[in-house]
Amino acid sequence: MNNSRIVVSLDFPNGKQALELCQKLDPTQCKLKIGKELFTREGPVLVERFINIGFDVFLDLKYHDIPNTVASACRVAAELGVWMLNVHACGGRIMLETACEALDKSTHKPLLIAVTVLTSMTDSDLRKIGISNSVDEQVMLLAKLTKSSGLDGVVCSAKEAKYLSSELGKEFCLVTPGIRPVNADSDDQKRIMTPAEAIVAGSHYLVIGRPITKADDPLVALSAINAEINSVA
Ligand code: C5P
Prior knowledge:
With 233 residues, the chain is an alpha/beta fold.
């Protein structure tokens, strides 16, 4: 495992494009995130390929199912050798604890984090699915459930990092998307923070896509963000 706190999001429709990008990156300077689109297209073969090249891989499949099914999926992901994987915290305590137990028995133990409330959801969306808590209340409730169930951390907005870090402790791993270096295009992200701001707020790992993947020179962009992080870490 390398020390980089940048997780490059491979939001590509196929493995060819993802591999082309990764040939321009340095596995000692970043980790990679593979999500549903790329995984559904290419499957575990691509995950293993990146791991064999030397990248730490965050498998972002957000498992949410009955406890036995989620635990089995987590065990198989661990066998692939991924560095981090995730589940939905709203699957409940037994699902979360069972997933942790499955990973505890694995020879290779990835970090297990949870999604609390999807950032696409509003208070009104929650009410429509029978949840009267506000988004902020529900995020905190599920983050506490995640921690007390034994998981390593949560995915959250960098804007939530300071509060979550103070409530749940600095060891609890916060993985934050919505990061934009100063002067970078915000694209479709609405609530952004710079890499340095996010680290100061308590983020452990920054999920960054387009500012690196669409850069003229992705390695130069990656190195600049690493330098910015190192200046405040
Ligand atoms: O290109 P960009 O840096 O915006 O990519 C961010 C990545 O993080 C994308 O894969 C996006 O789906 C993911 N993500 C996010 N916001 C969340 C959860 C995940 O942007 N709340």
